[in-house]
Hints:
CATH class: Alpha Beta
Distance between the termini: 34 Å
Strand order of the largest sheet: 2-1-6-5-4-3
Number of strands: 6
Number of helices: 4
Largest sheet: 6 strands, mixed
Shape: globular
Strand content: over 45%
CATH architecture: Roll
Amino acid sequence: MLLFLLFCGLGSEDEAVWQVVDHSYVQAVHRQANEAAMRQGFHPDFVMTIQTEDGIRKMSLDEWATGVAKAEAKAEPPRNIRAEQRQITVEGNAATVVLDLYRDEQKIFTDFLALYRYPDGWKIVSKTFFRHPK
């Protein structure tokens, strides 16, 4: 797998960033609803900005994780989720990831994630997104 990623232009830092995004965001939030796995890859001060008709609403990690925990409690089977990387940029201890998220092969979100590298690894610190019309 690593050879494929290097061949495709993904280096070890890019791969480390993607592993966090895939594990704690794509899989834990969207596919399986696993709060503990979600929190592993998010910084406690994470904030999601949501554009509303009235401006910007900010959602904390705790607010979002509460919703994931409620979905987890329902014990639903994993959802048919697929993520496509559009761009990973790493510069020093900062990174950004742009990805398209599909549910049942319908594009539902284009996500813009920002990460910082800490002594214990990469952590997602913010998210903005575009919700695609159904």
